[in-house]
What we know:
Mean pLDDT of chain A: 90
Low-confidence stretches of chain A: 1-13
Helix content of chain A: over 70%
Strand content of chain B: 15-25%
Oligomer: heterodimer
Radius of gyration of chain A: 24 Å
Shape of chain A: flat
Amino acid sequence: MPSEQEPNIERAPARLGDLFNLREPIPTGVYIALSIGSFAVLLVVWAALTYSKLIEPLFLPTPTRVFQAGMDLFLEFGFSADILNSTYRVMLGFVLAAVLGVPLGLLVGTFKAAEALIEPVIGFIRYMPASAFIPLFILWLGIGNVEKVAIIFVGSFFQLVLMVAVVAKNVHKDMLETAYTLGAKRIQVIWKVLLPASLPGILDTLRIIVGWAWTYIIVAELVASSSGIGYMIISAQRMLRTASIIFGILTIGMLGLITDYGFKWLHKKLFAWVE
Amino acid sequence: MDEAAKLRIQQISKVYKGDGHEVIAIDGIDLGIRNREFATILGPSGCGKSTLLRIVAGLAKPTQGLVRLDGQTISGPGQDRGMVFQSYTLFPWLTVMENIQFGLGLSGMDRAQQEQIAHEFVNKVGLKGFERAYPKALSGGMKQRVAIARALATNPAILLLDEPFGALDAQTRSLMQELLTQVWEELHITILFVTHDVEEAIFLSDRVFVMTARPGRIKAEIDVPLERPRQYEMKSSETFLHLKKRALDLIREEAIKAIQCKDRE
């Protein structure tokens, strides 16, 4: 065995160097191993800090404790309903923002008049933190789902419009002009060139925005709420159930990750033509 | 001026207004392109030759003057003037066939007929077997072949080409020039070609118009008496070399002027 391993040791430095070629692809196996490895490292650090009692369990419980808390949440506290509630609010707010924001963004990116009309206002509003609207929205919309959805909407809509506008602006002008020389009318250039050319960028934008929507749901549910993951977290805080808080945070992370991969998969499926 | 010209460029000027100063890109150009002629505008970079072509295409408005195609004044882009750009402008979400059919579909032609015409042009530009390929799978030369086929498919009255082979390597470029002459000799369509490459201009054209640098004017007109069909061996013939020397001398003066012009800015 040692005689077989030696050449490997010889080649190892060159291989390691290959991993650091700028923007060059690396073997799929290595890629997956590295991705899993980063999670493993986090878990190991967490385990080391907690099982060794270096950190008080009240501040950071052990992975086992968090797992147990999670089981309890699902089996005794109806956590599935919380997850469904939060997902519903996130998706409703996000879909509303997308349905209104994508066409508006395309307009802003396509017509200078629309840009002049819409961009300054949106540029102004988007700097207002969505969480600061909570008191206002409670006043206007009450404390039900509508208020939660409104906060998600405010948190994602304005950014979405500006990002979609940039996507539309980046469609190469030569491509639009080519369409004109092929006899396309203005409306045909929009439908047959600008829109299809923007779609991959729009889907990427939606992927990023849905991630933000997930972060806003918690803000929305921390205040004046009676269900949802955010509500669970705030109730756990009152009882000092740190493990439940951490499990709630991890759940959101997982949901975000799943949505993200869903979008990435969709992108690959729909836009195989992208260079 | 040729009264029977297919395309007439009359007293075209283009002035760009910058911050406080004006740049005269084109200054009073008069040209007549004959029916079924392969004409080339040859000039150093930044001489306004692309601007002139864009005006003919209807993509830019002249400050003064007008362009007539078959007697009709041009007011905007249209299917009667096919255009091929230097950059790769294929629609990446469409296959080779769908790209070529794009213009045909816009005018509401039925699908069967569209496909028949597209097939014909796929063959003409030598892309048989790549009908269902997406642009990302094509080389630069192949992309430009599709772009040429797409511009020709709508049967334009004139084909405009703006340095279409400028981004290609020397070997591919040379092959594409031969392909273009073949296509032209077969279809015998009127072509207005723009390039800064002297050899390319002479090899392809019946007539070469040499343009001056800023302001862009027509400095000389060179008739190319080389016989058709053009073969690449002609590039080393005495006539070719003689024409090339003449064009090179003319354009060199302009290139030097253009550089000095840029230095002063």
